[in-house]
Amino acid sequence: MSSQRTSGILLHPTSLPGPHGIGSLGSEAYRFVDFLAASGHSLWQILPLGPTGYGDSPYSVLSAFAGNPLLICLERLVEAGDIDPADIAGVSMEEGQAHFSFVRSFKTRLLHKAARTFRSTGNQQRQQAFIKFCSEQASWLDDYAMFQSLRGQFKGVSWDNWPREIRQRQPQALAFWKEELAAELLDQRYTQFVFYEQWFALKTYANHRGIRLLGDLPIFVALDSVDVWSHPDIFQLNQESQPTLVAGVPPDYFSATGQRWGNPLYRWERMVENDFAWWKTRLRWTLDQTDLLRIDHFRGFESCWAIPANEPTAINGTWQPVPGAELFTSLHREFGELPLIAEDLGIITPAVESLRDQFGLPGMKILQFAFDSGPDNPYLPHNLPRHCVVYTGTHDNATTLGWWQSLSTNDQQQTAAYLGRRAPSMPWDLVHAAMTSVAETCIIPMQDILGLDDSARMNRPGQPEHNWCWRLTPGALSDELQQRLQKLNDISGRAPTRGE
Q1: What region does 386 belong to: left with phi over 0, alpha with psi -120 to 50, or beta?
Q2: What is the value of pTM for the model shown?
Q3: Above pLDDT 90, what percent of the chain?
Q4: How confident is the model at residue 2 (pLDDT cuts 50, 70, 90)?
Q5: How large is the angle between the packed helices 27-38 and 479-491, nearest 10 degrees?
Q6: Residue numbers annotated as active site
Q7: Per residue in 426-464, pLDDT tens?
Q8: Over 50: is that where the pLDDT of 500 sits?
Q9: Which residue in 408, 389, 393, 411 sits closest to 456, CA to CA?
Q10: pLDDT, tens only, 94-112
Q11: Of the candidates 430, 460, 461, which has an alpha carbon nearest to the alpha carbon of residue 448?
Q12: Cβ partners under 8 Å of residue 489, min gap 6
């Protein structure tokens, strides 16, 4: 992280406006970059980019390496000649929310057609780029293409319920399906080629405009993912490919039974043996795609809550130590200074803080958590360290207006007294407090920039459906809003200095 005071906006690409049911890597993404630059921001924070599975959650993806095909811009495919303008003419969905089911069906069909067209008529330069991409990314792309093709063959059934021979990756089964699914494998490789063709073009443009991309790296991966299927030796699975221990968090004030996430836990002893090769490969590829990374559930690198897989809740878990210091030491040797942010929210022990500080990683501070326990609350602006990232809230919180509206009269009065406002104007007074704090970096969710209530919330943890759907409406990024943000960045010393 730079010592220069900076700011940015949290907005996942699915939340961008556009005509085809979901945000994409097309013109609206470029317009958002322009808006960030014109507003004096220098960071765009996104959520994980992987292909989503159950519940459309970007934190439960089918691959830690692949990109989400739903984000591919169809207009860019028309420009490339892979599909016809008639293929997308007249296709328009209600703005303001993501229509995952429709988009998945619609884009899968068009990407199938586009792959066939590309193979038969694609220009030579892109054909060569495709060959190069497949060669350079073969270490993950080949397994991903096979995994996705097999999921189609087995009607979306989780891999741990596939026939034993392919579930266990027996060589004869892999050879059979490689021949049987040859066309589908090419389709999957093409889809990833196009995703990254568009993503890296967007990243290049953003960096040219002075905008750095802040990505998100979940500590765990989903059971139904190519990562677990292709690397079962580094996960705690039994001989039937079922997890023996799964991740979660223990009971606390918010949940009497804790949270049972269900992600299989790592066999850290195996990772130590090969000097964390999988983590290095994962981090290298993810850092190619972004400039900075937030590490989700950082406390899990010190110890993690291990729940027996046959337990229905998280009550009967135990803390399992994790060689986090060894991992980050190895990563530091490999990559040098690590451009990482530690998501250190929740009940954080001194050991977790020590691990974070040992590697100089900034933590996260959430102002919505600041006003409920007196002047020593570590999230209050006067208690923040400089080396941190301050937020009004995150994708897992209520919007700031929704949070404010849910507070009791007494809590509202305490918050107002701290902010020095008899009748605070929410969310802007909290945005102002975050931006003018001593924190080196300030990130504001787009919903708070727009002053939206809790109907615009991105995620409600523990609710398995109807999350991740919120989208910007066309025209929301007005000139007036841009000028207001630019002024706030100027007065708080967060606007990029000339020459940067």
Answers
A1: alpha
A2: 0.96
A3: 89
A4: low
A5: 40
A6: 296, 343, 396
A7: 999 999 999 999 999 999 999 999 999 999 999 998 777
A8: no
A9: 393
A10: 677 899 999 999 999 999 9
A11: 430
A12: 7, 39, 40, 41, 435, 495
Cis preceding linkage at 312, omega within 30: no
Classify 78 in phi/psi space as left (phi over 0), alpha (psi -120 to 50) or beta: alpha
Residue pair 81/122 in contact by the 8 Å Cβ criterion: yes
CB atoms within 10 A of CB 256: 9
More confident residue, 78 or 96: 78
The band of 228, judged by pLDDT with boundaries at 50, 70 and 90, is very high
Residues in contact with 362: Cβ distance below 8 Å, sequence separation at least 6, in sequence order: 1, 341, 342, 387, 388, 389, 440, 441
